[in-house]
Amino acid sequence: MAQLSTTKLKPNEMLLNMGPQHPSTHGVCRLVLKVDGEKALEVEPVIGYLHRGMEKLAENRTYIQFLPLTDRLDYVAPLGNNQVYVQAIEELMEIEVPERADYIRVIMLELQRIASHLLFISSFGADVGAWTVLMYGFRERERLLDLLEMTTGGRMVYSYIWPGGVRYDLADGFVEKCRKEMEDLPKYLEDYKKYFYSNEIFLKRCEGVGILKKEDAVNMGVTGANLRACGLAHDVRKDDPYSIYDQLDFKVITEKGGDTLARFNMRLREIYESINIVNQALDALPKGDFRAKIPKILKPPFGEVYSRTEAPRGELSMYLVSDGESKSPFRLKIRSPSFCNLSAFPATARGAILADVVANFASIDIVLGDVDR
Predict the structure, then answer these.
(1) Tens digit of pLDDT for each residue in 213-222?
(2) Residues 6+ apart with CB under 8 A from 146
(3) Predicted TM-score of the model (pTM)
(4) How far is the C-alpha of 230 from the C-alpha of 46, rounded, in Å?
(5) Residue 74, SS3?
(6) Cα 341 to Cα 188: distance, rounded to the nearest angstrom
(7) Domain of residue 137, CATH code
(8) What are all long-range contacts of 70-75, with beta carbons under 8 Å and residues at least 24 apart?
(9) Which of 83, 205, 220, 264 has the smallest set of CB atoms within 10 Å of its CB?
(10) 186 is in which domain, residue-wise?
(11) How confident is the prediction for the chain on average, in pLDDT?
């Protein structure tokens, strides 16, 4: 039961439920709002509708058997979930990943980041009434899913990043097709800019709405584009590089203001930087093995490791403990960015009108599989 449901209401106040089955909650999230007319006095997210006990499931499966379940965490960007989990295993077992595999991983991770941001732009457009861009965003995203499918065989869940490398080498024709898509995508993004930034209604619904201050964002554990929209240049790919990110030249995008428009701008601008990373990785892609030789049954030595990555929604981390004897993790703890980002939402939505609550909520870009686990 939501805490707000037990509060006493004044004669002009009422409780309003948004969700858990509501398009603007982006999944099975329930927002309980205490409202006075069109003004939201308080907002409380209610989660748990999608909880599956992933961390406990890991203890009852082998290290490899749990890998496909990581796809089901942030199911909009599953490759990032693969990466952080596999990275932890490799550190525990001191597995050396072939250079070609690292380049392939980065290419796939950045393609996934672009696809995720395109889905954000599409759904955000629908939330603020810009329905045309919903079709535009899905059109470009489909092309990227075609690329991912060429090599992984999947369009939504992949289990592609594997301990020691990747499951398959790049498909024939992948490099050429990927270069073509990276060349064409900026042209479509310019159309998005014209569509959004010349739309007075869009700008009025986003500018100055849902402001999150830098200090508050840090104190509440906000990461990713939501944090960088406040002006703080924190990106795990730069601050604690993994894979081959330290060998690539890219910028950490930031915005000022910390409002809904800044969070939207972040995702749009980050797509350009991901295109830059993919092009660099394609140019420097080495030959060689795509996967190291590892035992069929993994039994990491006794120890613990904390692995973190920069997922499309922020800092995604896993704390993995091995007892040194079992073929299953002794303990797994997941630090999901969507959960922490959602916790900051009530503070930014308090006192807003209902229409602003919708735009603000859409701008934090949560995925409920990533929240509930």
Answers:
(1) 999 999 999 9
(2) none
(3) 0.94
(4) 26
(5) coil
(6) 29
(7) 1.10.645.10
(8) 70/159, 71/157, 71/158, 71/159, 72/157, 72/369, 73/334, 73/336, 73/369, 73/370, 73/373, 74/311, 74/312, 74/313, 74/316, 74/336, 74/338, 74/367, 74/369, 74/370, 75/156, 75/157, 75/367, 75/369
(9) 220
(10) 54-372
(11) 93
